[in-house]
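Researcher: Structure for this, please.
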Amino acid sequence: MKATLLPPKNPTYCAPITSNRELGSCLIANIPMRDLLSTELVRAGFEMISPKDACPRTIRIPIDTWIEIGALMILARNPGAAKLCDSDGAILAWKGNEDPEQVTDKIVTDADCFPVVYPWDLLRMHEEVLAMMDETSLLGDVSPLATLTGVVRLGKGSRILPGTVIEGPVLIGPNSQIGPNAYIRGATSIGANCFVGNGAEVKNSIIYNNTYISRQCYVGDSIVGTHVTLGAGTATENHRHDGRQHVSTIHGKPINTGRLKLGAMIGDGVKTGVNTSIAAGVKISVARTTLPGTYVSQDLM
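Model: Predicted structure, token format:
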């Protein structure tokens, strides 16, 4: 069985995370999405080929798609041309023609598959991947005064300082420092060469490499790019007071995210002043800055 990964349909919809990188380079569990998907497909028995080498029997998968392997195997075993769709009708993968609209046979799956269109879909994919981690691996230094529960993976050269509490699934890359007295929980990945300071909390978030989260920060249900500095006391709001699902503006249009909790989407190189507060669902573009005590109530794009 051969498969190929196709370019995303709407890569700009995931800005600012994709403002200066391809969607396939976005990190999921500290691994570029393209590498993660390719590895999973090879593990399932697929041979990965270039789109230009695809033939009618090749499974074509847009890279902006999360597909359960079992559902994909149903498509692969179908003898003829067919397309795999989710229950909402979104096309997830297909074979038989370069254009999926020319494929008439449809297979509908109720498996946990979905297109990755908006930045919060990256969070959903990240949650799915970390939920599959089943083995703790501690290659760094963990203080005996730290508390770790659940599945935790710690890279070489990283340090967990006293008083820190980590509730897995949590993945921390190499040469990072967490704590003292930090709290990391809920499907969180922290990249290489990162710093999470005294009393800071990171929950259900993706933190890219080389990012500095100062003391007493709160980062919840957020994506934080590379080389970001969050000043002391920076806090992301992640839920609405009325309990409704978050709405985010994409290219001038309000989009219901389907999420009851959604924090900030912060681009590479952002620096926030101390005690910056960021409203739920706000997007901050690459290299933007905030003054101390700022309340960011709308996107800074």
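Researcher: Any notable elements?
Model: The radius of gyration is 20 Å. Residues 119-131 form the longest helix (13 residues).
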